[in-house]
Design a protein that fits this description.
Elements: H1 4-17, E1 30-34, H2 49-66, H3 74-91, H4 104-114, H5 135-149, H6 160-171, E2 179-181, E3 184-186, H7 188-194, E4 202-206, E5 216-218, E6 229-232, H8 235-247, E7 252-256, E8 263-264, E9 269-270, H9 282-290, H10 293-300, H11 314-322, E10 330-339, E11 345-350, E12 364-368, H12 369-375, E13 376-382, H13 388-393
Parallel strand pairs: 4-6, 9-12
Antiparallel strand pairs: 1-10, 2-3, 4-13, 5-6, 7-10, 7-13, 8-9, 10-11, 11-12
Helix pairs in contact: 2-4, 3-4, 3-6, 5-6
């Protein structure tokens, strides 16, 4: 999520001045399916949407499996991911990705290797309980690593990992080796095991034509520093997976592009507006062609439910990815779907940006079916959420 930090800061500022009455008209949604999830948490000024979204998935899975509400520590996974990413960066002599961004793979890998910790035990902030603000932390980490690799020596000091851990301890906090939770003593490993979530039960789905369908491929984006694999499906089957999962009470982690002009946090919707000229006639056609690009944009991106949406195809999706019009910006959790006044499907999305505007559900928004088709990079979900016919095509049991 290379843009996630900038996007979160931008919308944090934007939402602080937004008032609900600024929007005279808006979509009216009828909920068709809503899956219970834990409360929205604010990633604040950090590029850790990948962490918040995937932890939200794990918490939703725990709700589905046990009926109990868990509040897991995002900071725990930030600490371990930054440390592991630094080790790889050093091993690759600075020629691998080291950025605040990441993917859903990162949290599942940490769960497998290191376990989990409750938020009440470890917040990942110093002092404890503060909101994330990682601008200075990242500059210090990156400066340390780059200085280490340019020290002129042919070998690295055996102490450099301790030095890097010292930075994390200072900014994020030292992870306890043991802790008490609800009357039981745990280590992070034993607490993670007690959750009974098997990281191998979670798969990633995508849909691109530059890889064979029904095969797996390394998701080719910069933030995939772990070289995690996704299963490749045709677009209509990816959408079938999405709908089947939600209908069967499975949420999923959604990796998407939110820099699209059709993504409007303040209006609580994300759409792919269309003004097809073939539908315009006479004076409407003439007037449209005399408008400036800025005026056309203003008329297209109206978030009141009055604009028809473009039909997104597999070919269009591929072209937008190849020309980098669609990039991975942000991860969120999809928890259900609704229909608008015209029976168009919109997916309910749990974000990690604090929202006290009162617009729609607090911290939630709705993404249209066409926006989902156009801007989805990948999605992570429980493999049991796949339709049986698609699981069979992928060789999954």
């Amino acid at each position: 999520m290379k843009k996630c930090l900038l996007i979160s800061v931008f919308f944090f500022v934007a939402m602080s001045v937004f008032a609900q009455e600024e929007v005279e008209k808006s979509y009216v949604f009828t909920m068709k399916k809503q899956i219970e999830a834990t409360p929205v948490k604010d990633q604040h000024r950090s590029g850790t949407c990948w962490d918040y979204a995937t932890v939200a998935l794990l918490e939703a899975e725990l709700l589905r499996n046990t009926g109990s509400v868990y509040d897991l520590s995002e900071g725990f996974y930030v600490y371990h991911t930054y440390y592991d990413k630094a080790v790889k960066y050093a091993r690759y002599h600075g020629n691998s990705t080291f950025s605040p961004g990441g993917m859903h793979f990162d949290v599942l890998e940490c769960l497998k290797k290191y376990g989990a910790i409750p938020e009440t035990v470890y917040t990942g902030t110093v002092p404890a309980g503060e909101l994330f603000n990682h601008g200075e932390l990242f500059r210090v980490m990156k400066g340390y690593l780059d200085g280490l690799l340019k020290n002129g020596s042919s070998t690295l000091s055996t102490n450099w990992k301790n030095g890097f851990a010292g930075i994390l301890n200072a900014y994020i906090g030292t992870i306890p080796e043991t802790f008490d939770y609800e009357g039981t003593k745990y280590t992070p490993e034993s607490f993670g095991a007690n959750l009974k979530i098997n990281p191998d039960d979670y798969i990633v789905i995508s849909s691109y034509t530059h890889h064979p369908f029904y095969d797996s491929f390394i998701v080719d984006i910069p933030d995939n520093w772990l070289n995690g694999y996704a299963y490749n499906l045709p677009l209509d089957e990816m959408m079938e997976v999405i709908n089947y999962a939600l209908d069967n009470d499975y949420t999923f982690c959604w990796d998407a592009d939110v820099s699209d002009k059709g993504f409007s946090w303040k209006n609580g919707v994300a759409i792919v507006p269309d003004r097809p000229l073939e539908y315009l006639s006479g004076t409407d056609y003439e007037r449209w062609n005399t408008l400036s690009d800025e005026e056309k944009t203003a008329q297209m991106y109206v978030f009141d439910g009055s604009i028809a949406e473009k039909n997104v195809t597999q070919e269009m999706r591929q072209e937008l990815f190849d020309n980098q019009d669609v990039t991975d910006d942000h991860l969120m959790l999809v928890t259900g779907y609704a229909t608008d006044a015209n029976d168009n499907v919109f997916y309910m999305v749990k974000n990690s940006w604090e929202d006290d505007s009162g617009k729609f559900e607090n911290g939630y928004m709705y993404a249209s079916e066409q926006f989902m088709k156009k801007n989805t990079i990948s999605l992570m979900l429980n493999k049991n959420a796949l339709p049986k016919n698609i699981a069979k095509k992928l060789g999954l049991k």
